[in-house]
Amino acid sequence: TIPKVKGVYTAIKPICQALEIDRQRCDQAMIPVSFNGLDPLFMYTQLLKEALLDIEDDDKKSIKDLADYCCEQDDIPEDQIKQVEREYRNHTPIWWYTAETFIYPMLNRGLRQMDVDIILKMGFFIRHLHNHITQLHQEQQGSMPTKFQVFRGQGLSMEDFEKMKKTEGGLMSFNNFLSTSHKRTISLDNFVRPATNNPSSVGILFVMNIDTAICMKSSTPFAEVSK
User: Fold this and answer.
1) Residue 94 in contact with residue 132, Cβ under 8 Å?
2) By Cβ atoms counted within 10 A, which residue in 13, 20, 34, 210 is the most buried?
3) DSSP SS3 for 226
C-alpha cells in the first residue's frame, strides 16, 4: 500500500519544497519510454519531430492559439495562461520548460499520449526549445568533457519494467526532452527510492555514459542547463 503520511512539517517552506519534489516525481515518471528503437512509437515520434522542426509559422499567432486552446481545458489555471501570453518572449524556452506552469506537464502528456492536438498547439514551443538546446550545445562544445556520466531516476510501471527486461542489450528511447543530473544521490533520493513506495511501480536508476565523440554525430543535441 502507498503510505498516507509522507512527512511531518511545522513550516510552510518545507511543505512547498516537498510538494514540488512530488510534482517532479510524478512528471518524471510519466515520461514515455520505448524499449525497442524500431518500434512504431519511436519511428512516429522521429518523423513528427522532423516535421515540427521544419515548420515556420507566426509565433505571435501560435502563442494566441495555444492560449485559446488552454482556455478550453478545465485543468489549466487562467493566471498561467495569461502569464504565457504576456511574458513568453521575456524568458528562454528552457526557463519555460522548467518553470512551474502548465507547459511541462502539458507537453509531457501530449508526447506520452501522442495527442496530435496538444503537439500541434505546442509545436512552436517544441521548436523553440530544440533550437535553444542546439544553440547551447554549440556554445558548450569547447568546454564539454570528452566523456562524462549522468543519472536519471524514474518510476516505471510493472508492465514497462517487464518490457525493459525483455529488451536487455537492445535500444531504448525517451520520447520527450530528457532531464538528467550529474549527481547520483539526487536521482536516487528524489526519484528512485520514492517510486518503491508505490506497489505498482519500480524505481529505476538510469546511468548514462556520454561519449561526446559519438554523440556529436547524432542530430539530437544536449546541453548543460543548470548554470
Assistant:
1) yes
2) 34
3) coil
Q: Which residues, other chains included, contact 33 with Cβ-Cβ below 8 Å and sequence gap of 6+? A: 156, 160, 164, 172, 173, 174, 175
- Provide Rg for the chain, Cα atoms: 19
Asked whether residue 162 is assigned to any structural domain, the reply reads no
From the number of C-beta atoms within 10 Å of its C-beta (0-12, 13-18, 19+), residue 210 rates as: middle
Q: What is the pLDDT of residues 88-144, one digit of tens each?
A: 999 999 999 989 899 998 998 888 788 889 998 999 999 999 999 999 988 988 888
Assigned domain for 15 exists = no
Rounded CA-CA distance 33/202 in Å is 14
Tell whether 182 is covered by a domain. no
What's phi and psi for 109, nearest 5 deg? -65, -40
Alpha-carbon dihedral 121, 115, 52, 78, rounded to 10 degrees: 20
Report pLDDT digits (tens) over 47-81: 777 787 877 777 889 999 999 999 999 889 999 99
Cβ(165)–Cβ(225) below 8 Å: no
| Closest-CA residue to 184 (of 162, 165, 209) | 209
Task: Kindly report the pTM of this predicted structure.
Answer: 0.78
Beta bridge partners of 210: 148
Q: Which domain holds residue 49?
A: 39-140
**Is the Cβ–Cβ distance between 122 and 66 less than 8 Å?**
yes
Q: CB atoms < 10 A from the CB of 51, how many? A: 10
Q: Which three cell numbers stand for residue 133?
A: 538546446
Total tally of structural domains belonging to the chain:
1
CA dihedral 141, 144, 148, 152 (to 10 degrees): -80
